[in-house]
Specification:
Structural class: alpha/beta
Order of helices and strands: HEEEHEHEHEEHEHHHHHHHEEHHHHH
Number of helices: 17
Distance between the termini: 45 Å
Largest sheet: 8 strands, mixed
Shape: elongated
Helix content: 40-55%
Radius of gyration: 25 Å
Strand content: 5-15%
Number of domains: 2
Length: 573
């Protein structure tokens, strides 16, 4: 058992990490004191509410107006994905408005959010409305081009990151255009065929790093390539530094005032570190919290020692793990395709919601059907199925054990959500490190989260049968040693297939400077990047809860609620 003092010590340490990381992230976002940061909402022309983060240098005023930059993220993202641009531009004398695009983050569904944001930024008393720029990543580039076309506000600088230039662009429209893209961006053909930009750059084959045209006439053009993929373009140091220089030359006349810092001296890495520490602290706090709660009089009936009999040998563990890993990844594209086709005829509120649900549900069903194959050579193959029937081992199941298990899981997830709200309201941050993390829920997202949670419950219940049933190795001496050993084994089996695919996509791209998996198939790797760290967390939770209860159900419920929350915040309406 975890020693009484140790569990409270870990809880205090984890809360300290959470608060310390949030403080570091907030300080970095504020440029360590030179930028004011607020979250602000405004209405678009179609009535949709647009949520945003506004970063204003402390010396900006109605008497000292500064250039403004609008920052817009891509599909299935939120404003935090591009916060590095806001951090670096604001501390160098730009007023930066970073928005959640329509249907993303905390913004309402609609079509005119980009235009509304551009006009909102230009109308601010601290902004020089004659010097406005936009940064748009992927889908955000398309939103930026539409906003430029629809708004009366003149935009003097546009940076398209991993985005197309559009059919109406030419050598002078839009004004002062920089195109930045990763060498192995799966959605862009520009790195391998720069002639696609000839009509916009005014030369047959634009060369990376070469300035074409003139800032004064608005005809400046530049192509920037960097060794990265579509996802990581938004935190790429080459692209961010080039964007800083482009905005300086376009909106400040190239002048470096007393507030200027060389573009190579960036601080957004501290923001990422703060997010990592705070998110890790929040996640870490769950484990001692579970141990404390399950020893209270309210949840004590759920506490049971797990069975340590019929452990898997090393060979059985590897064989079962290989099969489970193959099921997880081989079915990804076929099941995603089925879900995509179904979504064409079955309405679903969120884009990509049904494809993800089909992948998760299909993987669960296939894994459940494959389980007897793995168990047929075990001494007691029926044990895993018996444990599935028992919410609390050794007790006659009724509604009370199920209800208490649900309430315990809900309490743990509510704890995480409460900290998410505290951090958000006090620091204008989410608990995340670039990749999707814990965001506050709008009403529409809160209503759809249970749908995802129901499917993920089946998925994690079956996963518990594999990780703590078919693949559970011998018990170790000591509670901590046993937890560490089983956790490492579970995380390895769960995560290694996805890690290998990411290594193929990113590592291969770095080596060859070309997208290994091009097109929408490569873009779908976004799900692997997004899920991998959370799958590691869910695996450790599965082990922890099994060791505390001897049951698969508590972990399945906690993980289902957590992933239901994550999916509801990630996907777009």
């Amino acid at each position: 058992m975890m020693h009484l003092q140790l569990r409270y010590t870990i809880l205090v340490i984890s809360i300290g990490m959470l608060l310390g990381g949030a403080a570091l992230g907030a300080s970095t976002q504020a440029g360590f004191g030179v930028v004011s940061v607020v979250e602000t909402d405004f209405l678009a022309g179609d009535g949709a509410l647009i949520h945003s983060t506004l970063q204003t240098p402390t010396y900006a005023s109605a008497a000292n107006r500064l250039p403004g930059v609008l920052v817009i993220h891509g599909s299935l993202q939120s404003k935090e994905w591009l916060m590095a641009f806001g951090i670096e531009l604001a501390r160098r004398g730009f007023v930066v408005l970073t928005i959640d695009a329509n249907g993303h983050g905390n913004s309402d569904k609609g079509t005119s959010g980009g235009t509304a944001a551009l006009e909102y930024l230009a109308a601010l008393s601290t902004v020089d409305a004659s010097q406005i720029g936009i940064v748009g990543h992927s889908m955000g580039g398309g939103i930026a081009l539409r906003a430029i076309n629809e708004s009366s506000t003149v935009v003097n600088a546009l940076v398209l990151v991993g985005s197309g230039v559009g059919r109406y662009s030419n050598t002078t429209y839009p004004r002062n255009l920089m195109v930045a893209v990763g060498d192995f961006d799966s959605l862009s053909a520009y790195p391998s065929n720069t002639t696609l930009l000839s009509s916009v750059f005014g030369v047959p084959q634009p060369q990376p790093g070469v300035l074409y045209g003139d800032f004064g006439t608005g005809s400046a053009r530049k192509l920037v390539l960097s060794d990265t993929n579509h996802l990581f373009e938004t935190i790429d140091p080459v692209i961010i530094s080039a964007t800083i220089e482009w905005m300086k030359d376009s909106l400040k006349g190239g002048v470096e005032d007393s507030h200027w810092t060389p573009s190579s001296q960036t601080i957004y890495g501290w923001w990422l570190l703060g997010g990592l520490v705070s998110t890790a602290g929040a996640v870490l706090s769950v484990f001692p919290l579970l141990t404390i709660l399950i020893r209270t009089k309210w949840f004590g009936q759920l506490r049971r020692e797990p069975e340590y009999v019929n452990a898997a040998s090393r060979r059985q563990y590897l064989r079962a793990g290989t099969l489970y890993g193959l099921i997880s990844v081989i079915g990804f594209y076929p099941l995603l395709a089925v879900g995509t086709m179904v979504q064409l005829v079955v309405p679903f509120p969120q884009y990509q919601g049904l494809p993800v649900l089909f992948w998760i549900a299909g993987t669960a069903v296939i894994s459940l059907l494959a389980l007897p194959v793995i168990l047929r050579d075990r001494e007691e193959p029926g044990r895993v199925w018996r444990e599935l029937r028992e919410v609390v081992p050794g007790q006659k199941d009724g509604m009370r054990p199920i209800l208490m298990t649900f309430l315990l899981a809900l309490t743990v997830v509510a704890w995480l959500y409460a900290w998410t709200l505290i951090v958000d309201l006090s620091t204008s941050l989410d608990l995340r490190c670039f990749l999707p993390g814990m965001n506050d829920l709008t009403l529409s997202r809160a209503l759809i989260a249970p749908i995802y949670a129901a499917v993920f419950f089946l998925y994690f219940l079956v996963e518990g049968m594999w990780l703590m049933g078919a693949m559970r190795t011998r018990a170790r001496t000591g509670w901590i040693q046993g937890q560490l050993a089983w956790s490492v084994e579970a995380v390895f089996i769960k995560c290694i297939p996805f890690a290998l695919l990411i290594l193929l996509e990113f590592g291969g791209g770095l080596l060859l400077s070309v997208a290994i998996v091009p097109g929408i198939a490569g873009y779908s790797f976004l799900f692997f990047y997004a899920f991998l760290p959370w799958f590691a967390v869910s695996s450790v939770l599965t082990v922890w809860c099994y060791r505390e209860t001897g049951s698969y159900y508590l972990a399945a419920m906690v993980n289902a609620m957590l992933f239901g929350w994550l999916m509801a915040t990630i996907l777009a309406f």
